[in-house]
Amino acid sequence: MPDTRSELHIPVGESIGEVSALIDRPRDPRAFLVLGHGAGAGMRHRFLEALVERLCDRQIAVLRYQFPYMEQGRKRPDRPSKLLPTVRAAVARGVDEAAGLSLFAGGKSMGGRMTSLAASEEPLGGVRGLVFFGFPLHAPGRDGRERADHLAAVGLPMLFLQGTRDRLARLDLVQAVCSDLGERAALHIVEGGDHSFHVLKRSGRTDDDALDELAERAAGWMTAVSHA
Q: What's the rounded mean pLDDT across residues 37-66?
């Protein structure tokens, strides 16, 4: 559980305005993660709430933020021309809030991909690595790798957390992407997880089990990269 929670607003730019954010801090954090939400749900979605709680249990502080369209109550995601500046603004605020802790950035699905796109265009100052909770490699039924082409220009360690039933990321394609990235990429496979890391009841596991696995792997990886 977080020891403290703070609500704040992050200015993005005159043409965009500002977005809401939450910071959850455990006692004695080991690292700090800036986390973007997925395309269909904001920063207070139950998946992120549960994930952040588990990350805090493992001494990872987390800054969550809204993208502008979600802040304004719209369902359709903004274009990258608005999403990428939001990522950069959130990371810049994360640098200030981390106060010397190792800083990481990433997100759930779209939030992770927008973070990597921003990093491929211009280094995200202070960020030690990127964490993807379900990288959206392709649209459902339209298998391809083009959405990952920009990762070649990201000069940071990257952790991919992917479910075996993810319809937005065929596992063999994700494995090929990670192989091409070499030592920069680490892949953790959540057996039976879909794009939201739901698992089937017949697997003998629960969604809580999958969330525990995600948080444990992400926290361990961030700690290891911090000490490298």
A: 97
CA distance 112 to 219: 16
Taking only the tens place, the pLDDT of each residue in 110-142 is 999 999 999 999 999 999 999 999 999 999 888
Rounded Cα–Cα distance for residues 27 and 17 (Å): 32
- Closest listed residue to residue 18, CA positions, set 105, 89, 119, 91: 89
Residue whose token pair is 């200030």: 96
CATH number of the domain bearing residue 99: 3.40.50.1820
Strand order in the sheet with 31-36: 4-13, 17-25, 60-65, 31-36, 102-108, 127-133, 158-163, 185-190
Q: Which domain holds residue 101?
A: 4-227
Q: Which of helix, strand or coil describes residue 36? A: strand
How many structural domains does the chain have? 1
Q: Which two tokens stand for residue 119?
A: 């990093």
* Cα(11)–Cα(80) distance, integer angstroms: 17
